[in-house]
Amino acid sequence: MGEEKGNSMFYFPGNLVEAFKIRNRILGKVDLQKTVYFMKRLGVSVPFNFRWNIFGPYSYELAHFCDHLVVEGLFRYTGRYILNEKKAEMYASNFSPRIRKRIEGFFRRVEETCSTHRYDSVRFIECVASLDFVLQNVSKERKRKEVVYSLLGALKPERAELFKTFREDAWNLLVNEDLVRLA
User: Roughly how many angstroms between the first and final C-alpha of the chain, as a whole number?
Assistant: First the structure.
């Protein structure tokens, strides 16, 4: 559970607005799912659970809720999400300064890695989230890098070759963000 105070569903739209401002853009539904997944992993109280899907960790409830936010006018969806700045002013966030700094740092490092290596940012964050989800859901005995890589390849055979190009950078990002706990 996240460290901020208050009802997570009440604050979620405002926290999503804050994450949107931190990221500057959300490049579609996969990017949105991974943004919220990492918000939760980095300590934000998110009222949705994630399960395995073809694109890695996915929340059906989040997808429906975001559709509702589009209908409500907070976002416009055109293949990517566009924030309605005027509507966004109506929502309150409850990010603590520590959480905000952690989220800013995490997504800055994602963007720096993608920029440095010319990775597709959506595919890279999909890889990072997928590795993290596998790590979170394997037994302690199986939490070794090569085992996790093998499991990821078996779970996402259509992405196995693509992910090989940046899984080492994805793993290192998780380690540097203190999200990998091997023992």
Answer: 21
Model pLDDT for residues 151-168, shown as the tens digit of each residue: 999 999 999 999 999 999
Q: What is the pLDDT of residues 48-100, one digit of tens each?
A: 999 999 999 999 999 999 999 999 999 999 999 999 999 999 998 888 999 99
Under 8 Å between Cβ of 3 and 86: no
- CA gap 62, 133 in Å, rounded: 17
Q: Which amino acid is at 84?
A: N
Q: What is the largest CA-CA distance in the chain?
A: 50
Q: Which residue has the tokens 């939490």?
A: 143
Q: Residue 112 and residue 19: Cα distance in Å, rounded?
A: 17
Structure tokens at 182: 């091997």
Write the single-letter amino acid at 159.
R
Contact criterion met (CB below 8 Å) for 38 and 138: no
